[in-house]
Amino acid sequence: MSYVDEVIAQVVEKNPAQPEFHQAVKEVLESLRVVVEANEEKFRKDALLERLVNPERQFMFRVPWVDDNGQVQVNTGYRVQFNSAIGPYKGGLRLHPSVNLGIIKFLGFEQIFKNSLTGLPIGGGKGGSDFDPKGKSDREVMAFCQSFMTELCKYIGADTDVPAGDIGTGAREIGYMFGQYKRIRGVYEGVLTGKGLSYGGSLARTEATGYGLLYITKEMLKSNDIDIAGKTIAVSGAGNVAIYAIQKAQQMGAKVVTCSDSTGWVYDPDGIDVAALKEIKEVKRARLTEYKNYRPNSEYHEGKGVWTVKVDIALPCATQNELDLEDAKALVANGVIAVCEGANMPTTLEATQYLQENKVYFVPGKAANAGGVATSALEMSQNSERLSWTFEEVDAKLQNIMVNIFHNLDDAAKKYGFEGNYVVGANIAGFEKVVDAMTAQGIC
Ligand code: NDP
Ligand code: 2IT
Q1: Pairwise CA distance, residues 273 & 416, whole Å
Q2: Residues 347-387: pLDDT tens digits?
Q3: What is the atom index within ligand 1 of the atom nearest the CA of 365?
Q4: Which residue from 373, 379, 381, 402 has its CB within 8 A of the most atoms of ligand 2, so it is best to mutate?
């Protein structure tokens, strides 16, 4: 059995009931086959792949908090410190009822290669809890966040591990967590990113993931002689990534006709009204059913359906495995040109393969959504020098980073004979720097 197959089999056997983690490992290791085979003897001797797929450290802890009825609730908290070869652990905190160890491990594993692709000195980590912020009062969210940080603060720090937002963790939650960290540890430091602007946050971090997705999408299309202006786009999700992806797509002259949340989706033939979407999701924290009140010409549908709309470009920006083989077939039948992932692993392995076989340009999340964590790293830099850069300065750096990511992965794909396969390109380009750093640092 080849070394890659051996390690994949080990991961499946040793991590039962963690299908998302298996999926992420399979995608990465399959892509690395060509590099691993060229170095098989050395990598095997050094157990390089075994070290790559085993987190350096993982924490699971009890998070008790009191709800508005005086009832004690108990959630589970997680932080997986996956790989610190190229910098302090860096990655978001997901708050969603579906969170479990396997989900956090898949996200932490992806984060290693994503962070490497940014070219910035950040290692891979991820955390979160099965707490559901939806429908909770501000006081309940604060009680949860304070309890969560009371334990988490023992393991993180500006030079060791720097968490940030993800699904369910936005500016409000980061604020409550930062306050509790400062109170317990007694240090004012950049231990979290995505902070508010009044206490060390970076301009453009809120917009960064969505904007970055569009910067790389535009660059990828340009290098294939396609102009993004005038294209029709389907976006899924209606959260942080989706909102700013829609905004930037519109600024680039494209028309985004859909968005979605966990209960339904919107089709707006005139193009999504970003101001309305922001008010519904960021201010009122309401459902998308409200969108029709702002735009009578739009349609609201219960359930799933974004990928059935005829579009040129699809940008999945909600959650993992939200675009399956059936969706990929519908997109291809409707003539889709490109799929670029705003979310982490939103496309199943079968769907990815089908899209690639049908000549759809496909940019994987670890490259396409890296603008968020890249800008988090820029927030860390600003915190370290105790200065704040302008929006234009941060945005210009972000654009530069996304353009470089595209060319690095495009070049890596070409170098190994996989021209146009951006999945292989991203995994190899991300892997090379991590392997270099791991090898230089000896067996650890
Ligand atoms: P938000 O919580 O702001 O928004 C998530 C959106 O996706 C919401 O519209 C939510 O609907 C929908 N959603 C979440 N879970 C599900 C589900 N199980 N089924 C259907 N819809 C769902 O999160 P973000 O926008 O920050 O994150 C979206 C994706 O982007 C995630 O995969 C995240 O890991 C990834 N990402 C985020 C980055 C960031 O900087 N925030 C950076 C890089 C990647 P509802 O409101 O109904 O829950
Ligand atoms: O998946 C991701 O890259 C994020 N949720 C952002 C992580 C970060 O540290 O900004």
Answers
A1: 43
A2: 999 999 999 999 999 999 999 999 999 999 999 999 999 99
A3: 44
A4: 373
